[in-house]
Specification:
Growth Hormone, Chain: A; 19 helices; symport; mainly alpha; membrane; about 0% strand; about 450 residues; about 80% helix; symporter activity; single chain
Length: about 450
């Protein structure tokens, strides 16, 4: 790895990115990301139904845990996909890596949608479901790094925050789409029909996007070999230490982010299984929280282009820390629509803002020749270790403690760790943005 940080013997090229790339091109990259995260995240919303289809058990808790364990299996192959496809994006290009990732994801989601139930083919059903999740994990592991690198490289320096914010925003859009599909199916179908085949419809809708996604990705121009403004000359050893520090802090922040994200996405299952609310309200909970997360992610990126990266990471994170326990206490005590929709929606909004600023800061802090692979690998390991275990851990905590506030405890610990890492992150915004933010500061 150290050889990748050796000085590159070439003349600096001081050419800014073409601003025309920040329109339809960024939209194309974002839509592909939306479609992939819809496919991957839909599993969360139908964990109970999938458990009944592939993992029947006399104990509903055991069936749910087996289903969530299969969901977690998709995180095992994420680091492998990140290393393979992320490195491929740094050597060959962002576009071919993103296209390959999308094709594998769509094939896997189609396989999961048409796999017969345990009652039909026996042990083959859970084995096929697990294989599909492993392929999905590999594909998605190689998606985030190249896409984030692409969005940053396609944008002018003064709009990188907003451009990169479409990465976390697209994940929220995907989650919203999945929750909306779940809400519509829960309203249109009986509980028996939803359990029997309704969840398959949601997966088939995702698989049906394969032609559109491939067309969008194949039309994207390549950014890997486009010139970037040269960075200041730094000794190789110092540069290596700085990058290692950035990657270490990024791992902690991404772990915090993924725990926050997957606990909020777990709220449909939590509302149904723990709070015992109606299915329409349970799906609406995730729908509303993810919908406000879209605006929060874009707002975070927009603010990062005006106030710098660190301020937009730190202060909203403090606010989210202070809000977490009171919001969950309100939800558990009242179990009302206003608490589930309003309280969780507000917490999601505040808690999502910091991560757009972090995404662009991380991308800016990594050298271009390792940007896609390094970002993808850090993200994948954080997701594999903490994202894949978040929902089973929360389910287990609720089961062994009998306390419905267990998700708040886990979220608080994760958010506190993320906050500490954010405090140590360097400011990576272009000098003009840093100067403007300093002038607006009271100090």
């Amino acid at each position: 790895m150290a050889s990748q940080f050796a000085p590159e013997h070439r003349k600096p090229i001081l050419v800014a990115p073409d601003e025309s790339l920040t329109g339809s091109v960024v939209l194309g990259a974002t839509i592909g990301n939306i479609l992939e995260f819809y496919d991957f995240g839909t599993y969360t919303f139908f964990a109970i139904q999938i458990g009944q289809a592939f993992f029947p058990a006399s104990d509903p808790f055991a069936s749910l845990m087996l289903s969530l364990g299969t969901f977690g299996a998709g995180f095992v192959t994420r680091p492998i996909g990140a290393i393979v496809l992320g490195s491929y994006s740094d050597r060959v290009g962002r576009r071919p890596a993103m296209t390959a990732s999308f094709a594998m994801m769509s094939a896997a989601i189609l396989a999961l949608a048409v796999t017969p139930s345990y009652e039909t083919i026996g042990i083959g059903a859970p084995l096929l479901a697990i294989f599909a999740r492993l392929v999905q994990g590999f594909a998605l592991g190689g998606e985030v790094g190249p896409t984030t690198a692409y969005l940053m490289e396609a944008a002018p320096a003064e709009a990188r925050g907003l451009a990169v914010s479409f990465q976390p925003a697209s994940q929220q859009i995907a989650a919203t789409a999945g929750a909306l599909v779940g809400e519509m199916l829960s309203l249109a179908m009986t509980s028996e029909a939803l359990d029997a085949y309704g969840w398959r419809i949601a997966f088939l809708l995702g698989a049906g996007t394969l032609p559109l996604g491939l067309w969008l990705r194949s039309a994207l121009p390549e950014t890997l070999h486009r010139p970037e403004a040269s960075a200041p000359v730094v000794e190789s050893a110092k540069r290596l230490r700085a990058v290692r520090r950035m990657m270490s802090l990024g791992l902690v922040i991404l772990a915090s982010c993924t725990i926050f994200t997957y606990i909020t996405e777990y709220m449909t299952t939590y509302a149904l299984n723990t709070l015992q609310v109606s299915a329409p309200l349970a799906f609406a909970t995730t729908l509303v929280s993810n919908a406000v997360g879209i605006g929060a992610a874009l707002l975070g990126g927009w603010l990062a282009d005006r106030a710098g990266r660190r301020h937009i990471m730190i202060w909203p994170q403090v606010t989210a820390l202070l809000m977490t326990y009171p919001v969950f206490w309100w939800i558990v005590e009242s179990r009302s629509a206003i608490a589930l929709l309003g309280g969780l929606g507000a917490l999601t909004f505040i808690g999502t803002v910091p991560y757009s600023a972090f995404y662009v800061s991380m991308a800016e802090g990594l050298p271009k020749n390792i940007r896609g692979g390094a970002f993808a690998t850090i993200y994948a390991f954080a997701i594999a270790i903490f994202g894949g275990t978040a929902q089973p851990i929360v389910t287990w905590l609720i089961h062994v403690t009998g306390n419905a506030l267990a998700p708040a405890w886990y979220m608080l610990v994760a958010s506190a760790a993320g906050f500490c890492a954010m405090l140590m992150m360097p400011e990576t915004a272009p000098p003009r943005i840093q100067s403007a933010a300093h002038k607006r500061s009271p100090s």
